[in-house]
User: What shape does this take?
Amino acid sequence: MRTLHLLFAAFCVVANAAHAVSNISATQSEVMNKLLATYAESAKVEFKEQNGRGAVSDKPFSAEVGRKFFLARRTWQSHDYTCSGCHTNDPTKVGRHIETKKAIDPLAPSKNAERFTNFEKVETNFKKHCLDLYERDCTAYEKGNFISYLMSVK
Assistant: This one.
């Protein structure tokens, strides 16, 4: 029964996210929905493996939790790091790489038709950026919340 409830919750998250984002391309929507479904399944496994402890959850993904994750600051080696440090507090705006100062296209898929069109590229970027910011891969729950947040940004 619990598995059925979690599957239904994952479906609702994907359906609501797809409905909420009408100004992204079909490819972006397809890839982002695939990501959300994959992360929902992985989050259940992570939660079960951790016995409910750690940075994982069996709750549905939340755009608000994703926004907080995006804005969260981490101090490491006397420097402050955050996703928004390069991508700005507004993911619809052009960002700037913190070291190279090169422009970074908007992170929000509603403003960048290239963002979230390749599943493997998204996973590669998560791995790279999570290692840079947190010295670990992000959990599926963190990734799902982050994607939910970006899908909600207009």
In short: The first strand starts at residue 74 and ends at 76.
